[in-house]
Amino acid sequence: MAKKLAAAIIVAACLSTSLQASTNPVVAATPPQPSWSALGKEQQVILAPLAAEWNSMENYRRKKWLGVAQRYKNMTPDEQQRLQKKMQEWARMTPQQRLAAREKYNKFKNMSPEEKAVVKQKWQEYKQLPEDEKQRISGPPRSDSAPPTPPESK
Amino acid sequence: MNELHFAFRIRQHLNQSLQQIDADKIERLKAARLRALSVQKLPSTNPVLAVAGHFFRFHFEGVHIRHVLLALIAALAIGSYTHWQADELVAQLSDVDSALLSEDLPMEALLDQDFDEWLKSSQRQ
Protein backbone atom coordinates (compact mmCIF):
# COMPACT_ATOMS: atom_id res chain seq x y z
CA MET A 1 0.00 0.00 0.00
CA ALA A 2 2.80 2.35 0.95
CA LYS A 3 4.62 1.52 -2.29
CA LYS A 4 1.50 2.29 -4.36
CA LEU A 5 1.06 5.53 -2.50
CA ALA A 6 4.69 6.42 -3.19
CA ALA A 7 4.21 5.58 -6.89
CA ALA A 8 1.07 7.74 -7.05
CA ILE A 9 2.91 10.62 -5.42
CA ILE A 10 5.76 10.30 -7.95
CA VAL A 11 3.31 10.24 -10.90
CA ALA A 12 1.40 13.22 -9.48
CA ALA A 13 4.65 15.12 -8.96
CA CYS A 14 5.73 14.43 -12.57
CA LEU A 15 2.34 15.58 -13.90
CA SER A 16 2.24 18.74 -11.83
CA THR A 17 5.83 19.57 -12.80
CA SER A 18 5.03 19.18 -16.48
CA LEU A 19 1.90 21.32 -16.09
CA GLN A 20 3.79 24.00 -14.20
CA ALA A 21 6.47 24.02 -16.89
CA SER A 22 4.08 25.95 -19.03
CA THR A 23 1.53 28.30 -17.50
CA ASN A 24 -0.35 28.50 -20.76
CA PRO A 25 -1.63 25.12 -22.01
CA VAL A 26 -2.14 26.58 -25.49
CA VAL A 27 1.57 27.25 -25.78
CA ALA A 28 2.48 23.76 -24.64
CA ALA A 29 -0.16 21.81 -26.56
CA THR A 30 0.16 23.47 -29.98
CA PRO A 31 2.26 21.27 -32.24
CA PRO A 32 5.03 22.78 -34.39
CA GLN A 33 3.69 24.90 -37.24
CA PRO A 34 5.23 25.43 -40.69
CA SER A 35 8.03 27.92 -41.19
CA TRP A 36 7.51 30.80 -43.64
CA SER A 37 9.14 28.93 -46.53
CA ALA A 38 6.90 25.91 -45.91
CA LEU A 39 3.70 27.94 -46.29
CA GLY A 40 1.62 27.67 -49.46
CA LYS A 41 1.81 30.44 -52.07
CA GLU A 42 -1.69 31.68 -51.22
CA GLN A 43 -0.95 31.72 -47.48
CA GLN A 44 2.25 33.70 -48.11
CA VAL A 45 0.33 36.29 -50.13
CA ILE A 46 -2.35 36.72 -47.44
CA LEU A 47 0.11 36.75 -44.53
CA ALA A 48 2.76 38.83 -46.38
CA PRO A 49 2.76 41.63 -43.73
CA LEU A 50 3.95 39.04 -41.19
CA ALA A 51 6.77 37.59 -43.31
CA ALA A 52 9.59 39.24 -41.33
CA GLU A 53 8.45 37.99 -37.93
CA TRP A 54 6.79 34.70 -38.88
CA ASN A 55 9.73 32.41 -38.08
CA SER A 56 10.16 33.91 -34.61
CA MET A 57 6.48 33.57 -33.68
CA GLU A 58 5.25 30.99 -31.17
CA ASN A 59 3.50 27.97 -32.67
CA TYR A 60 0.08 28.89 -31.33
CA ARG A 61 0.30 32.36 -32.92
CA ARG A 62 1.34 30.88 -36.27
CA LYS A 63 -1.61 28.52 -36.04
CA LYS A 64 -3.92 31.40 -35.20
CA TRP A 65 -2.72 33.37 -38.25
CA LEU A 66 -3.19 30.32 -40.46
CA GLY A 67 -6.77 30.26 -39.17
CA VAL A 68 -7.11 33.96 -40.03
CA ALA A 69 -5.76 33.26 -43.53
CA GLN A 70 -8.43 30.60 -43.96
CA ARG A 71 -11.19 33.04 -42.96
CA TYR A 72 -9.70 35.72 -45.24
CA LYS A 73 -11.09 33.96 -48.33
CA ASN A 74 -14.65 34.54 -47.15
CA MET A 75 -14.20 38.29 -46.56
CA THR A 76 -15.21 41.15 -48.80
CA PRO A 77 -12.38 43.00 -50.62
CA ASP A 78 -12.74 45.91 -48.17
CA GLU A 79 -12.45 43.62 -45.16
CA GLN A 80 -9.46 41.88 -46.72
CA GLN A 81 -7.75 45.21 -47.26
CA ARG A 82 -8.39 46.38 -43.68
CA LEU A 83 -7.18 43.06 -42.29
CA GLN A 84 -3.89 43.17 -44.16
CA LYS A 85 -3.37 46.82 -43.25
CA LYS A 86 -3.76 46.13 -39.51
CA MET A 87 -1.98 42.77 -39.47
CA GLN A 88 1.54 43.99 -38.86
CA GLU A 89 0.41 46.58 -36.34
CA TRP A 90 -1.46 43.86 -34.44
CA ALA A 91 1.44 41.41 -34.46
CA ARG A 92 3.74 44.04 -32.95
CA MET A 93 1.42 44.99 -30.10
CA THR A 94 2.13 43.65 -26.63
CA PRO A 95 0.03 40.69 -25.40
CA GLN A 96 -1.63 43.06 -22.88
CA GLN A 97 -2.64 45.47 -25.63
CA ARG A 98 -4.03 42.64 -27.73
CA LEU A 99 -5.99 41.33 -24.76
CA ALA A 100 -7.41 44.77 -23.99
CA ALA A 101 -8.37 45.30 -27.65
CA ARG A 102 -10.09 41.90 -27.84
CA GLU A 103 -12.07 42.61 -24.69
CA LYS A 104 -13.26 45.95 -26.03
CA TYR A 105 -13.99 44.48 -29.43
CA ASN A 106 -16.13 41.73 -27.86
CA LYS A 107 -18.30 44.46 -26.32
CA PHE A 108 -18.42 46.33 -29.62
CA LYS A 109 -19.34 43.14 -31.51
CA ASN A 110 -22.40 42.62 -29.34
CA MET A 111 -23.78 46.08 -30.06
CA SER A 112 -26.61 46.67 -32.50
CA PRO A 113 -25.69 48.08 -35.96
CA GLU A 114 -27.04 51.49 -34.83
CA GLU A 115 -24.88 51.50 -31.68
CA LYS A 116 -21.84 50.47 -33.73
CA ALA A 117 -22.46 53.32 -36.12
CA VAL A 118 -22.66 55.74 -33.16
CA VAL A 119 -19.33 54.51 -31.77
CA LYS A 120 -17.66 54.94 -35.17
CA GLN A 121 -19.12 58.41 -35.55
CA LYS A 122 -18.07 59.34 -32.00
CA TRP A 123 -14.54 58.19 -32.74
CA GLN A 124 -14.41 60.61 -35.67
CA GLU A 125 -15.71 63.40 -33.38
CA TYR A 126 -13.19 62.48 -30.67
CA LYS A 127 -10.32 62.63 -33.15
CA GLN A 128 -11.34 66.18 -34.08
CA LEU A 129 -11.23 67.39 -30.46
CA PRO A 130 -8.46 69.87 -29.69
CA GLU A 131 -5.54 68.46 -27.71
CA ASP A 132 -6.31 70.49 -24.56
CA GLU A 133 -9.85 69.10 -24.55
CA LYS A 134 -8.48 65.56 -24.79
CA GLN A 135 -6.10 66.29 -21.91
CA ARG A 136 -9.00 67.57 -19.84
CA ILE A 137 -10.76 64.23 -20.41
CA SER A 138 -7.73 62.19 -19.46
CA GLY A 139 -7.20 64.31 -16.31
CA PRO A 140 -3.87 64.57 -14.53
CA PRO A 141 -1.11 62.33 -15.89
CA ARG A 142 -1.50 58.80 -14.58
CA SER A 143 1.32 57.32 -12.59
CA ASP A 144 1.31 53.97 -14.41
CA SER A 145 1.70 55.18 -17.99
CA ALA A 146 -0.01 56.80 -20.88
CA PRO A 147 -2.79 54.81 -22.56
CA PRO A 148 -1.31 52.07 -24.70
CA THR A 149 -0.89 53.08 -28.26
CA PRO A 150 -0.10 50.63 -31.00
CA PRO A 151 3.23 50.90 -32.76
CA GLU A 152 3.24 52.75 -36.02
CA SER A 153 1.80 50.77 -38.86
CA LYS A 154 3.35 50.74 -42.26
CA MET B 1 13.18 -35.09 18.51
CA ASN B 2 13.58 -31.41 18.60
CA GLU B 3 13.90 -29.22 15.52
CA LEU B 4 17.66 -28.82 15.70
CA HIS B 5 18.22 -32.52 15.93
CA PHE B 6 15.92 -33.11 12.97
CA ALA B 7 17.91 -30.65 10.86
CA PHE B 8 21.13 -32.36 11.87
CA ARG B 9 19.80 -35.75 10.71
CA ILE B 10 18.74 -34.33 7.35
CA ARG B 11 22.21 -32.86 6.82
CA GLN B 12 23.76 -36.22 7.64
CA HIS B 13 21.55 -37.96 5.09
CA LEU B 14 22.33 -35.41 2.41
CA ASN B 15 26.07 -35.69 2.98
CA GLN B 16 25.89 -39.48 2.82
CA SER B 17 23.87 -39.37 -0.38
CA LEU B 18 26.34 -36.93 -1.91
CA GLN B 19 29.09 -39.52 -1.50
CA GLN B 20 26.97 -42.04 -3.37
CA ILE B 21 26.34 -39.93 -6.53
CA ASP B 22 27.90 -41.45 -9.67
CA ALA B 23 30.89 -39.72 -11.26
CA ASP B 24 29.02 -39.02 -14.54
CA LYS B 25 26.14 -37.42 -12.62
CA ILE B 26 28.64 -35.24 -10.75
CA GLU B 27 30.09 -34.18 -14.11
CA ARG B 28 26.62 -33.32 -15.45
CA LEU B 29 25.81 -31.30 -12.32
CA LYS B 30 29.10 -29.44 -12.64
CA ALA B 31 28.47 -28.64 -16.31
CA ALA B 32 24.94 -27.41 -15.48
CA ARG B 33 26.29 -25.18 -12.73
CA LEU B 34 28.91 -23.68 -15.04
CA ARG B 35 26.26 -23.03 -17.69
CA ALA B 36 24.06 -21.29 -15.11
CA LEU B 37 26.96 -19.14 -13.93
CA SER B 38 27.82 -18.12 -17.47
CA VAL B 39 24.38 -16.66 -18.12
CA GLN B 40 23.77 -15.04 -14.74
CA LYS B 41 23.38 -11.25 -14.72
CA LEU B 42 26.60 -9.35 -14.16
CA PRO B 43 26.60 -6.39 -11.79
CA SER B 44 26.19 -3.08 -13.63
CA THR B 45 29.32 -1.04 -14.20
CA ASN B 46 27.19 2.14 -14.30
CA PRO B 47 26.35 3.08 -10.70
CA VAL B 48 23.64 5.57 -11.75
CA LEU B 49 21.77 2.99 -13.81
CA ALA B 50 22.22 0.41 -11.07
CA VAL B 51 20.77 2.75 -8.45
CA ALA B 52 17.88 3.68 -10.77
CA GLY B 53 17.23 0.02 -11.51
CA HIS B 54 17.22 -0.87 -7.83
CA PHE B 55 14.94 2.08 -7.08
CA PHE B 56 12.36 1.09 -9.68
CA ARG B 57 12.60 -2.58 -8.81
CA PHE B 58 12.11 -1.82 -5.13
CA HIS B 59 9.37 0.79 -5.52
CA PHE B 60 7.36 -0.61 -8.42
CA GLU B 61 7.56 -4.30 -7.62
CA GLY B 62 3.92 -4.37 -6.63
CA VAL B 63 2.71 -2.39 -9.67
CA HIS B 64 0.82 -4.59 -12.12
CA ILE B 65 0.42 -4.16 -15.88
CA ARG B 66 -3.19 -3.12 -15.17
CA HIS B 67 -1.95 -0.12 -13.19
CA VAL B 68 0.50 0.83 -15.92
CA LEU B 69 -2.27 0.61 -18.54
CA LEU B 70 -4.60 2.72 -16.40
CA ALA B 71 -1.87 5.34 -15.96
CA LEU B 72 -1.23 5.33 -19.74
CA ILE B 73 -4.95 5.72 -20.51
CA ALA B 74 -5.20 8.59 -17.99
CA ALA B 75 -2.13 10.27 -19.50
CA LEU B 76 -3.57 9.87 -23.03
CA ALA B 77 -6.93 11.29 -21.91
CA ILE B 78 -5.27 14.32 -20.27
CA GLY B 79 -3.06 14.83 -23.34
CA SER B 80 -6.02 14.60 -25.76
CA TYR B 81 -8.12 16.98 -23.68
CA THR B 82 -5.30 19.54 -23.46
CA HIS B 83 -4.73 19.27 -27.20
CA TRP B 84 -8.45 19.71 -27.95
CA GLN B 85 -8.67 22.65 -25.54
CA ALA B 86 -5.65 24.33 -27.19
CA ASP B 87 -7.22 23.81 -30.63
CA GLU B 88 -10.46 25.39 -29.45
CA LEU B 89 -8.70 28.40 -27.94
CA VAL B 90 -6.62 29.00 -31.07
CA ALA B 91 -9.75 28.72 -33.25
CA GLN B 92 -11.51 31.28 -31.01
CA LEU B 93 -8.52 33.62 -31.31
CA SER B 94 -8.61 33.24 -35.11
CA ASP B 95 -12.31 34.11 -35.11
CA VAL B 96 -11.99 37.18 -32.87
CA ASP B 97 -8.84 38.51 -34.52
CA SER B 98 -10.22 38.04 -38.05
CA ALA B 99 -13.35 40.00 -37.15
CA LEU B 100 -11.48 42.63 -35.14
CA LEU B 101 -8.88 43.32 -37.83
CA SER B 102 -11.35 43.40 -40.70
CA GLU B 103 -13.74 45.69 -38.80
CA ASP B 104 -14.20 49.25 -39.97
CA LEU B 105 -13.09 50.61 -36.61
CA PRO B 106 -9.54 51.88 -36.16
CA MET B 107 -7.33 50.04 -33.73
CA GLU B 108 -6.72 53.27 -31.83
CA ALA B 109 -10.43 53.40 -30.94
CA LEU B 110 -10.05 50.04 -29.20
CA LEU B 111 -6.88 51.00 -27.36
CA ASP B 112 -7.55 54.61 -26.37
CA GLN B 113 -8.80 54.55 -22.76
CA ASP B 114 -9.64 58.27 -22.88
CA PHE B 115 -11.95 57.70 -25.82
CA ASP B 116 -13.78 55.13 -23.70
CA GLU B 117 -14.26 57.63 -20.88
CA TRP B 118 -15.25 60.40 -23.26
CA LEU B 119 -17.77 58.10 -24.96
CA LYS B 120 -19.34 57.14 -21.61
CA SER B 121 -19.55 60.74 -20.45
CA SER B 122 -21.01 61.91 -23.76
CA GLN B 123 -23.65 59.16 -23.58
CA ARG B 124 -24.62 60.25 -20.07
CA GLN B 125 -25.17 63.83 -21.17
TrEMBL record, chain A:
What keywords tag this UniProt record? Signal
List compositional bias (Basic and acidic residues) regions by residue number: 107-136
A Pfam family this chain is assigned to = DUF3106
From which residue to which does the signal peptide run? 1-21
Chain positions covered by the region annotation Disordered: 107-154
> What protein does this entry describe?
DUF3106 domain-containing protein
Automatic annotation (TrEMBL), chain B:
Superkingdom field? Bacteria
Q: Which InterPro entries match?
A: DUF3619
What is the protein's name according to its record?
A: DUF3619 family protein
A Pfam family = DUF3619
